[in-house]
Amino acid sequence: QAQERLFKGTDIAAGKALHQEHKCSTCHQERHSLNEKDYYTRPDRKVTSQEKLITQINFCSTQLKLSLFPEDELNIAAYLNNAYYKLK
C-alpha cells in the first residue's frame, strides 16, 4: 500500500482537517490558478516521492509561518498522498 513506507501510523483525518484549516487549497488556487485536484496531480509537479512531499509540506509551513508540529506536517502529507499522489 502507498501509505505504508513513511506514513505508517499517521492520522489521515487529522491531516485533512489541518489541510482545510490552513486553507492550503485556497493558497494554491490563488497562486497558481488551479483547483486542488489539478494542482496536486499536474504532470509537471515537483513532488515525485514521499520524501519530497514531506519536504514540500515543511517548506509551505515554514514560509507561511504556520507553526505546525512535525507530526502535523506528516499527517498533512499522508492525507495528500492518500487523496492524490499515491506515492510509494
Number of strands: 0
Helix content: 55-70%
* Sheet/helix structural class: mainly alpha
Supply Rg.
Answer: 12 Å
Model regions low in confidence, pLDDT < 50 over at least 5 residues: none
Write down the secondary-structure element order.
HHHHHH
Overall body shape: globular
How would you describe the oligomerization state of the chains in this entry? single chain
Proportion of residues in extended strands: under 5%
**Main sheet: strands, sense, barrel:** none
Give the N-to-C terminal Cα separation.
Answer: 7 Å
User: Mean pLDDT, as a whole number?
Assistant: 91
Number of helices: 6
Please characterize this protein's 3D structure:
- The protein has 88 residues and is an all-alpha fold.
- It has six helices and no strands.
- Helix 2 (12-21) packs across helix 6 (70-85).
- The longest helix has 16 residues, at 70-85.
- It starts with a helix and ends with a helix.
- The mean pLDDT is 91.
